[in-house]
Write a structure and sequence with these properties.
425 residues, alpha+beta, three-stranded mixed sheet, 17 strands, RNA-binding
RNA sequence: GGAGGGAUGGCCGAGCGGUCUAAGGCGGCUGUCUUGAAAACAGCUGUGGGGUCACACCCACCGGGGGUUCGAAUCCCUCUCCCUCCGCCA
């Protein structure tokens, strides 16, 4: 949620920001109009309430029955006017709130302006594209050949786009998750294990609702929504709280499965495990003071890079342009790793500074040490990393001519005696 | 799933239709005293909204929502959560 006061005071700035996102700026006019109506109604209804409060207090003290009765009747009338105006006010507020809830975050000034992903900017590439003296296979060939990815079983028990990991494949993914979490702990994050289902209010707070309801799975009978990313429950942890300045920053890391209903086009990303309705991810998340968020952002990007680097993967950082930014983000860097088998850069991480956008929705504040009034915190999130794609990259980069896969050094503590994944393992 | 009991400020806890402007205690802040500290004493100590150049002032909030009433922390309905007991369960 952006600040209604910002729209009121600097409407042009908001208009410009929305245009950069390829959006119509009509919501600005509508918000201004509703805000004006809202304040007008508040003035009316509150002055009536002040009158009623004062007179009701008098009534309590009045002895003369006639005088008392006259005032009661007068106030009954005032009460009716209050009820009518309150009704109008609620209506206007609901409209304004609904409108504000669908306005995306404003891009930072330094974000490159662009229409769509074709205008994203590669900031740096680390490592060289690996060379093979044989034709590297894609994971959808490697995995089944090694018996570690089974597409048929996933389809059998759940449906299209689901798969089963087996043996060393399942173990390799578990190793990645455990190793990543341990790395983030060393980087200063506190590990969290959260519910994988949350209430609607938490989905709203994290910015998933109401706009992206189509992409979420939910329980039909209860107010339970399956998380599309750990960012959601982590945002919710501090919902409605006022922290002390000394508590900040808070750095959290969490592993969760992620559930996304997104409708996927038939021709795109259909092969392999790159995109599914369920995937695992290790997430980094921060709550910090507003003035600290730019530095925290750079640090989080570096933390995600370290994961790629220690895995020995070639990666690049891609800055999203204004037209490609997510709903809640004011700046985002995607990290992509090279997958030599399928021959493409795979997005394994997306790191965003959300500013106070989620903090406003979830109402997370902190009280400055000088005792001044509470301010919204800033939040940041970043994958560290997304699982199936990291798994793809490991399999495709570490494959050998005979179809076996060498286990990266850092993962070996979790792989038992398996240093090389072969078809018989 | 069944039966009962609860939810009040940062914390504990009173209040059960008008003087609640929410008692009292604890904690915190400021001041007096002190070389300093402690103790004692005095004052202050929530959030959001409206309003104002800034004040003043006004409105709302006693778990959430709705209702009754001139007036609700207090009465009614409903939801959520917590506790106790029974049942079921990894």
């Amino acid at each position: 949620m952006i600040d209604i006061n910002l729209i009121r005071e600097k409407p042009e700035l908001v208009r410009e920001a929305l245009r950069k996102r390829q959006m119509d700026d009509a919501p600005v006019d509508r918000a201004l109009e509703l805000d004006l109506g809202r304040r007008d109604l508040i003035k009316q209804v509150e002055s009536l309430k002040a009158e009623r409060n004062a007179v009701s207090k008098e009534i309590g003290k009045l002895k003369d029955p006639a005088e008392r009765q006259a005032k009661i009747e007068a106030m009954r009338e005032v009460g009716e006017r209050i009820a009518a105006l309150d009704g109008q006010l609620h209506e206007v507020e609901a409209k304004l709130e609904a409108l504000m809830a669908e306005i995306p975050n404003l891009p930072e000034a330094r974000v490159p302006v662009g229409v769509d992903e074709s205008h994203n900017v590669v900031i740096k590439t680390v490592g060289a594209l690996p060379e093979f003296d044989f034709q590297p296979k894609a994971h959808w060939d490697l995995g089944p050949a090694l018996g570690i990815i089974n597409f048929e079983q996933g389809v059998k028990i759940t449906g299209s786009r689901f798969y089963v990991l087996s043996g060393a494949g399942a173990r390799l993914q578990r190793a990645l998750i455990a190793w990543m979490l341990d790395l983030h702990i060393r980087q200063g994050y506190l590990e969290k294990y959260t519910p994988f289902m949350v209430k609607e209010a938490v989905m709203f707070g994290a910015g998933q609702l109401p706009k992206f309801a189509d992409n979420l799975y939910r329980d039909h009978e209860e107010d339970l929504w399956m998380v599309p990313t750990a960012e959601v429950p982590l945002t919710g942890l501090l919902m409605g709280e006022i922290l002390d300045e000394a508590d900040l920053p808070l750095h959290y890391a969490a592993y969760t499965p992620c559930f996304r209903r997104e409708k996927m086009s038939a021709g795109r990303d259909v092969r392999g495990i790159k995109r599914g309705h369920q995937f695992d991810k290790v997430e980094m998340y921060k709550f910090c003071k507003p003035e600290d968020s730019p530095a925290e952002f750079e640090k989080m990007v570096a933390d995600a890079e370290q994961v790629c680097a220690e895995l020995g993967l070639t990666y690049r950082i891609n800055q999203l342009c204004t037209g490609d930014l997510g709903f809640t983000a004011q700046i985002t860097y995607d990290i992509e790793v090279w997958a030599p088998g399928c021959g493409e850069w795979l997005e394994v991480s997306s790191v965003s500074n959300v500013g106070d956008f989620q903090a406003r929705r979830a109402n997370v504040k902190y009280r400055p040490a000088d005792g001044s009034r509470p301010r919204f915190v800033h939040t940041l999130n970043g994958s560290g990393l997304g699982m199936p794609r990291t798994l793809i990259a490991v399999l495709e980069n570490y494959q050998q001519a005979d179809g076996s896969v060498v286990v990266p050094e850092v993962l070996r503590p979790w792989m038992g005696s398996i240093d090389v994944i072969r078809s018989e393992t």
